[in-house]
């Protein structure tokens, strides 16, 4: 039997998914056997916009697929082993990538670069070859570098379309809403905090001033809240004590973002959420990728919104973000070059 908290999660998640009409959409998860991959596969199985779920991992995916496939929703599920990546990707419209190693206590996301860069590059090369029109959602860290790696890999293959590549930063948005709610007492469900920049430490820039509750927070409460949003991942890494980083909240955030992508593909208008994409906003400062509010549609990225009005503190946060982000992006580019 489900625990009360698990039952509540499922109810909330089912509510979080909205659908205008159903459509045939194959979604592939690369890294489906992992800490994020498993609950993410579960949540995608209950998304009515997913018609077929393709679960791939170098280990464990058939087991996850067999398990998830018994859930009484309309979609079909198939698991693929290490040598079946092409089959897993065949016909995929959306590819979600949580493959790679997570952090241990004391590690930064950049410490994962050496292992995850090649995993993501090789998976991206296969997506470019087998499913060049797929929308690619990158969860594997360091997102600030892995997304440029995917872009360059696809560019080399001659199939890069910036409208179809997304770094998943939605956990930062989820955390911002939750943590603000804890400070101000409002229901996080109705809170939208744009979180811009990148996805690690100081590159995470929450724009609290753009929210009715957030803009009244000041002083030490403000600094602590910003720090918690920027370094919230560390709380989980520390509490898991060597067993990994955020998996359940990440799966929730990833499924929510995938649902936004699917709603856009399905023709729904006004689907707007922050995500890390190829962006002109700060390209003149050498920052080719940036997360800001993006309108999603039938072709993926339809419109990239500017950051909007910033408070003096947020201006400072942005100034601190850009040089770090530039370095992370260049590191990703250099890896593929
Ligand atoms: P995990 O170690 O539990 O799972 C990773 C899975 O990837 C494993 O099942 C492994 O077999 C698989 N894998 C490794 N190489 C592969 C390959 N070449 N092809 C397919 N699968 C492969 O790790 P976890 O906790 O699921 O984290 C995954 C990634 O997500 C990490 O890089 C982590 O840092 C990142 N992450 C990103 C967040 C975000 O906000 N974007 C939040 C939390 C974690």
From TrEMBL:
<dbReference type="GO" id="GO:0005739">
    <property type="term" value="C:mitochondrion"/>
</dbReference>
<dbReference type="InterPro" id="IPR001557">
    <property type="entry name" value="L-lactate/malate_DH"/>
</dbReference>
<comment type="subunit">
    <text>Homodimer.</text>
</comment>
<dbReference type="InterPro" id="IPR010097">
    <property type="entry name" value="Malate_DH_type1"/>
</dbReference>
<dbReference type="GO" id="GO:0030060">
    <property type="term" value="F:L-malate dehydrogenase (NAD+) activity"/>
</dbReference>
<feature type="domain" description="Lactate/malate dehydrogenase N-terminal">
    <location>
        <begin position="25"/>
        <end position="167"/>
    </location>
</feature>
<keyword id="KW-0816">Tricarboxylic acid cycle</keyword>
<feature type="binding site">
    <location>
        <position position="103"/>
    </location>
    <ligand>
        <name>substrate</name>
    </ligand>
</feature>
<dbReference type="InterPro" id="IPR036291">
    <property type="entry name" value="NAD(P)-bd_dom_sf"/>
</dbReference>
<feature type="binding site">
    <location>
        <position position="57"/>
    </location>
    <ligand>
        <name>NAD(+)</name>
    </ligand>
</feature>
<feature type="binding site">
    <location>
        <position position="109"/>
    </location>
    <ligand>
        <name>substrate</name>
    </ligand>
</feature>
<dbReference type="InterPro" id="IPR001236">
    <property type="entry name" value="Lactate/malate_DH_N"/>
</dbReference>
<dbReference type="GO" id="GO:0019752">
    <property type="term" value="P:carboxylic acid metabolic process"/>
</dbReference>
<keyword id="KW-0560">Oxidoreductase</keyword>
<dbReference type="Pfam" id="PF02866">
    <property type="entry name" value="Ldh_1_C"/>
</dbReference>
<feature type="binding site">
    <location>
        <position position="141"/>
    </location>
    <ligand>
        <name>substrate</name>
    </ligand>
</feature>
<feature type="binding site">
    <location>
        <begin position="31"/>
        <end position="37"/>
    </location>
    <ligand>
        <name>NAD(+)</name>
    </ligand>
</feature>
<protein>
    <recommendedName>
        <fullName>malate dehydrogenase</fullName>
        <ecNumber>1.1.1.37</ecNumber>
    </recommendedName>
</protein>
<dbReference type="InterPro" id="IPR015955">
    <property type="entry name" value="Lactate_DH/Glyco_Ohase_4_C"/>
</dbReference>
<dbReference type="GO" id="GO:0006099">
    <property type="term" value="P:tricarboxylic acid cycle"/>
</dbReference>
<comment type="similarity">
    <text>Belongs to the LDH/MDH superfamily. MDH type 1 family.</text>
</comment>
<feature type="active site" description="Proton acceptor">
    <location>
        <position position="199"/>
    </location>
</feature>
<dbReference type="InterPro" id="IPR022383">
    <property type="entry name" value="Lactate/malate_DH_C"/>
</dbReference>
<feature type="binding site">
    <location>
        <position position="250"/>
    </location>
    <ligand>
        <name>NAD(+)</name>
    </ligand>
</feature>
<feature type="binding site">
    <location>
        <position position="175"/>
    </location>
    <ligand>
        <name>substrate</name>
    </ligand>
</feature>
<keyword id="KW-0520">NAD</keyword>
<dbReference type="Pfam" id="PF00056">
    <property type="entry name" value="Ldh_1_N"/>
</dbReference>
<feature type="binding site">
    <location>
        <position position="116"/>
    </location>
    <ligand>
        <name>NAD(+)</name>
    </ligand>
</feature>
<feature type="domain" description="Lactate/malate dehydrogenase C-terminal">
    <location>
        <begin position="169"/>
        <end position="336"/>
    </location>
</feature>
<feature type="binding site">
    <location>
        <begin position="139"/>
        <end position="141"/>
    </location>
    <ligand>
        <name>NAD(+)</name>
    </ligand>
</feature>
């Amino acid at each position: 039997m489900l625990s009360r908290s698990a039952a509540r999660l499922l109810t909330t998640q089912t509510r979080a998914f909205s659908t205008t009409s159903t459509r045939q959409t194959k979604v592939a998860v690369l890294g489906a056997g992992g800490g994020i991959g498993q609950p993410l596969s579960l949540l995608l199985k209950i998304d009515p916009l997913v018609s077929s779920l393709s679960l791939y991992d170098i280990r464990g995916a058939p087991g996850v697929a067999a398990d998830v496939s018994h859930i009484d929703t309309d979609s079909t599920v198939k698991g693929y082993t290490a040598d079946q990546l092409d089959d897993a990707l065949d016909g995929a419209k959306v590819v979600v990538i949580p493959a790679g190693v997570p952090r241990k206590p004391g590690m930064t996301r950049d410490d994962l670069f050496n292992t995850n860069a090649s995993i993501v590059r090789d998976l991206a090369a296969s997506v470019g070859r087998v499913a060049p029109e797929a929308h690619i959602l990158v969860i594997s860290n360091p997102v600030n570098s892995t997304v440029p790696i995917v872009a360059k890999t696809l560019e080399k293959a001659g199939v890069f379309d910036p409208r179809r590549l997304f770094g998943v930063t939605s956990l930062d948005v989820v955390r911002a809403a939750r943590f603000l709610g804890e400070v101000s007492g409002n229901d996080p469900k109705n809170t939208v905090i744009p979180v811009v920049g990148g996805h690690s430490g100081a590159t995470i820039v929450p724009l609290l001033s753009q929210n009715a509750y957030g803009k009244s927070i000041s002083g030490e409460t403000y600094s602590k809240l910003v720090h918690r949003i920027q370094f919230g991942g560390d709380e989980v890494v520390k509490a898991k004590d060597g067993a990994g980083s955020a998996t359940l909240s990440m799966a929730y955030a990833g499924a929510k973002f995938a649902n936004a992508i699917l709603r856009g593909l399905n023709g729904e208008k006004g689907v707007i959420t922050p995500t890390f994409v190829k962006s002109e906003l700060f390209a003149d400062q050498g920052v080719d990728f940036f997360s800001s509010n993006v309108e999603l549609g039938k072709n993926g990225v339809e419109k990239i919104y500017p950051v909007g009005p910033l408070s003096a503190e947020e201006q400072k946060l942005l100034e601190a973000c850009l040089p770090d982000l530039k370095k992370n992006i260049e590191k990703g580019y250099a890896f593929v070059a």
